[in-house]
Amino acid sequence: MATDVQVPALGESITEGTLAQWLKKPGEAVAADEPIASLETDKVSVEVPSPIAGVLTEQLVKEGDNVAVGAVIARVDETASAGAAPAVAVASAATNPAGAGETPALRGDEHAPVAEREVEHDDQVMTLSPAVRRAVLEYHVDPTRIRGTGKDGRLTKDDVLAAAEAQKTSSPAKAAAQAPEAKAPTVPESKPSAPAPRPAPASAGDRKEERVKMSRLRQTIAKRLKDAQNTAAMLTTFNDVDMSAVIDARSRHKDLFEKKHGIRLGFMAFFVKACALAAKDVPAVNASLDGDEIVYRDYFDVSIAVSAPKGLVVPVVRNAQAMSFAEIEKTIADFGWRAKDGTLTVDEMQGGTFTISNGGVFGSLLSTPIINPPQSAVLGVHRIEERPVVEKGQIVARPMMYLALSYDHRLVDGREAVTFLVRVKEAIEDPTRLLIDL
Prior knowledge:
Structural class: alpha+beta
């Protein structure tokens, strides 16, 4: 008896997602709660588990299709046997219908260098995602000779690109080793030498373009940021901060800190604590607008912008005002790893009251960050570099960083924004303020 596999609840306000990849093919055995497909939502990737143990018999949607919450996308039969021939045929039709933008060779030519959907590898079937299939075919590499670094050993596009580069590097040396000994050309004495050939013009075929549909995450980022520009009265104020005291404290205590807490002491914890302290003096920065009302909060849930393979995500460190340095660093480190793995949940990226964006890790000197609605402010921190500053009439070199606070002028006045930024600057330049709540 076949059991329907439905799209699970994807989080508050999310009603649909995109089927990014089938993780199992029809005819394959699946265990209860084993992921059979990956969905891409506006915020995160979500795996769809099998409700029962059995055999995947049908795929009812194709990769790239939009599916609503509760929709049936597949069927699993607990009485069927794995490897049935009809089931494999269904997999072929579901993953790539005839004529879906592929060349004839990809639709079953026995001379095609690489199978479109799967290849035999170590006596198992290896599934290739659409992006990986395109890369394999474009760079003419053999996927069975590549060790995958993705989840469960699956190939990623980076694996294919690395293999192609290695293949390109080894080809000239291999060709030189196999080339026969060159012989001197013979020129007939009775004929004049031919004029030297002109260099061939560059081939127009070397110019390539690729069109890739925007992911749901990228579409959502684009929409939300543009909505923020259209709605909020955004303004950015700047300041700079001397990082000498924080750098000195970190260098003196980082080894003992890591030994005791099992995590490295970074700069972000200092800024989280400094912003939480400053928000007590300037609560409007941690507030939001709801219609004609202002919502003030006695807690500080800070969204930390981290980079993920499919775009920027902002998981939330909740109740940061009550957390220790070690707790903040551990939480941020965990978010960073899981952002790369795509295992962050929707709930972990909702409900932030303030955002810190660290462009300095990419080398940014200065920026004007955009507010993450419905928040009213975002702090941008940047790279540290030595600059000349004047102290007591003397020009000295100090490790300086620019700070940028973008805020919604409908809620936050300029005086409040500047005061908040000055409080952060004071706490960073004198970290003891963080300990005695000044």
